[in-house]
Amino acid sequence: MTERPDIFLQHLFEATFEAVSADRCLPAHLPAPPNGRTIVVGAGKASAALAKVLEASWVGPLSGAVVVPYGHKADCQSIDVLEASHPVPDEAGQRAANHILQLVSHLTEEDLVIALISGGGSALLSLPAPGITLADKQLVNRSLLRSGVGIAEINTVRRALSVIKGGRLAAAAHPARVVTLVVSDVAGDDPAIVASGPTLPPPESAFSATQILADYKIEIPDSVQQHLDKNIPDISRTALFDEDSVTVIARARDGLQAAAAEAERQGWEALVLGDDIAGEAKDIAADHARQALAAARFRHSRSPPLVMLSSGEVTVTLGGSQGDGGPNSEYLLALGLALNRDPKIWALACDTDGIDGNSQNAGGYLTPYSVSGASEMGLDPTGLLTAHRSATFFETLGHTIVTGPTLTNVNDFRAIAICAGAH
To answer: Which of 16, 18, 363, 381 could form a Cys-Cys staple with 255, CB 3.0–4.6 A?
Structure first.
């Protein structure tokens, strides 16, 4: 090993999000041009980058619009790139959703709609159902994000309150054929969950929006309750969708495979723990710490270094705390405390979109000396974890990783390096 473990882990992180970039994952999946018009729509953190690559690869005229979070634009010529708020929707997102819905209206069976969908699209395509205001949706979104509920359940609620999600955008586009290309940021890679599936009928769910809100004690406005009481059914998969297609063009597994291949190229053993790991950040960290400590016990000076890789989506239940940071930095701080300063173990946890929670960082890295170093600087690592202030911990140490928006999103990336000896 010729470089510091933290530098090596950052290199693996870069290999991960580069492997699922638009120019790598999109061109091979483009459909043939239609006899009629080609309309491009999209929503999510990767959508502008996908639109730019699509323009460069497409033969013939096209037009359309995609909506991305503020700061995630890419230069397009024929496709409008709109910006809106994420993760809580705003008026710009509502205008963008309405514009995109209008773009696909009044098409014919000779026309083609290409939908570029990626994580973050749920908040960006915010078009409330009749009787519900944007303020109502903002209130429900904020409460859901603080509750620790998983993304599949959050999107079940979002679909129930929307006139564009859960296949309704595709229904508006028919009889045109809809080709949906998805960059997945959800565990299990169900494309109907990504961005709440605006062009796909929703997956069968064991829980209704009403039950999810009740189980997590989410207070909702009267207008939302009245809408849910109407029990409006989801769009079901019918012959309406028979001519459509959907392809997941990039996912967490692709990024992990690229990281594992790069690690092995550099002489490391690579062990993939899973690409769909979900749960409370502190609980997942405790489990990974146990596995790392067990593996470290059997490493000696002649052992090749080992890197344990994982992805998925960990969550944080904030409760009454405001918190600072995100699930990746919370996972990493919990991991550091559980590792108890083992001199062989370093780690990194970042979000592949470049933004961890409410921070401006992708995440951070952990050395064997991070916890003791923070304590010497007057920080209380355990107290910061309890208060969900993990960003303070890593920012004070200078152990944050800043990439800016990566223009892709295949969920969390975690790597634990177990070296042959102390460094």
So the answer is: 16
